[in-house]
Specification:
- It is built from 12 helices and 8 strands.
- The chain is an alpha/beta fold.
- It has one domain: TIM Barrel, CATH 3.20.20.
- It has an 8-stranded parallel β-barrel with strand order 1-2-3-4-5-6-7-8, surrounded by 9 helices.
- The longest helix has 27 residues.
- It starts with 5 loop residues before the first helix and ends with a helix.
- 51% of the residues are buried.
C-alpha cells in the first residue's frame, strides 16, 4: 500500500494533518484513522526527521499504516530548503511543503515553483505558503506576522503550480495562538478562496482544549493563558475553502497529559510501555475528535 498524495486525500473531503515525532504518535494517529475509517495526513517537520531519523520515520509510518490498514499521506511540514524537500521525496514522502514565507515574494515564488516541479516528478504533491505565522516554527515575532494578501495569493498559485496553499489569516503556532479573543480573519480567507483554485491550508490550528490545559496545570505544567482555535472557527474556515488543518500542539499536550497522569496515579511504575502507552491513548482520543470534526463538515 503506497502513501496517498494530498490530492487523493482531498478527494474524500477536508482532512486534519497530524504532526508526529515518534512511534507512539504514529501509532496513535493511524489508530484514530482506523477507528474513524478515514484517510489521514501524517506530517513531519525537519525537527521531527532529525529527532527520529528520516528513514526510520518513513519506515514507521509505512509499517504502522499497513498493519492497521489505513490510508495515509506522508507530508513534509515546513521544509525550508530544496535540499530537505528532495531528501524527503527520495525517502518516500508523498507530499512536501516548501516554506518560503519569510522570503521576499519573488524569491518565495521562484523556490516554491522549483519545489513543486520537483515534487511532481516524483508524482507527489507540493504545498506552498504565503504570509507569515508567528510561533515556534517561524523566527518571526507577532509584530511582524504578515497576513496573506488575496491578490498575491492568486499570482503565487499561478506562478508556482502548487497543489495547496497555506495562508496566514490570524492563527499562530504553539499553545498561545491569540492575544485576546480568538479570531480568524474569515473575510480575508473568503477573498483568497474567490481568487485561488487550489485547496487552502490552515497552519497553527490546534484547539488547545481548556480541559487539557486545566489538567496539565494541575499536574504542574505552566500553561496560563494558553488558547487555541475554537471548533466553530475551524468549521467556518473549512466552509471557505480550507481542506487541510494542521494539528501539532494538541497532540503534544494530550501526550504529556496522558504520561503525567499515569505516573501520578502509578508512582511505582517504571515500565515505559505503560506510561508511553497512556500518552498514546490520550493522543488517539484527541485525534479522533479532530477527524470527526472535519468529516462532519465534509458530510454537510
Amino acid at each position: 500500500m503506497g502513501f496517498l498524495t494530498l490530492r487523493e486525500v482531498f478527494a474524500e473531503g477536508p482532512c486534519p494533518a497530524f504532526n508526529v515525532n515518534n512511534l507512539e504518535f504514529v501509532q496513535a494517529v493511524c489508530e484514530a484513522a482506523r477507528l474513524e475509517s478515514r484517510p489521514v495526513i501524517v506530517s513531519a517537520t525537519e525537527g521531527a526527521l532529525s529527532y527520529a531519523g528520516t528513514g526510520a520515520l518513513v519506515a514507521m509510518v509505512r509499517a504502522v499504516s499497513e498493519e492497521k490498514g489505513v490510508r495515509v499521506a506522508l507530508h513534509l511540514d515546513h521544509g525550508k530548503s530544496l535540499e530537505i524537500v528532495r531528501a524527503a521525496l527520495d525517502a518516500g514522502f508523498s507530499s512536501v511543503m516548501f516554506d518560503g514565507s519569510a522570503l521576499p515574494f519573488e524569491e518565495n515564488v521562484r523556490l516554491t515553483a522549483e519545489a513543486a516541479r520537483l515534487a511532481h516528478t516524483y508524482s507527489a504533491t507540493c504545498e506552498g505558503e504565503l504570509g507569515v505565522l508567528s510561533g515556534v516554527e517561524d523566527s518571526v515575532s507577532s509584530e511582524r506576522a504578515l497576513l496573506t494578501d488575496p491578490a498575491e495569493a492568486a499570482a503565487f498559485v499561478e506562478e508556482t503550480g502548487v497543489d495547496a496553499l497555506a495562508v496566514a489569516v490570524g492563527t499562530s503556532h504553539g499553545a498561545y495562538k491569540f492575544k485576546g479573543e480568538p479570531r480568524i480573519d474569515l473575510e480575508r480567507l473568503e477573498a483568497i478562496r474567490e481568487r485561488v483554485r487550489v485547496p487552502l491550508v490552515l497552519h497553527g490550528a490546534s484547539g488547545v482544549p481548556a480541559g487539557l490545559v486545566a489538567e496539565l496545570s494541575e499536574l504542574g505544567i505552566a500553561l496560563e493563558g494558553a488558547s487555541g482555535v475554537p471548533d466553530e472557527q475551524i468549521t467556518e474556515a473549512i466552509r471557505r475553502g480550507v481542506m487541510k488543518v494542521n494539528i501539532d500542539t494538541d497532540l503534544r499536550l494530550a501526550f504529556l497529559a496522558g504520561v503525567l497522569r499515569y505516573i501520578k496515579d502509578n508512582p511505582k511504575e517504571f515500565d515505559p510501555r505503560r506510561y508511553l502507552g497512556a500518552g498514546r491513548q490520550t493522543v488517539i482520543e484527541v485525534a479522533r475528535k479532530r477527524i470527526r470534526l472535519m468529516a462532519g463538515i465534509a458530510g454537510t
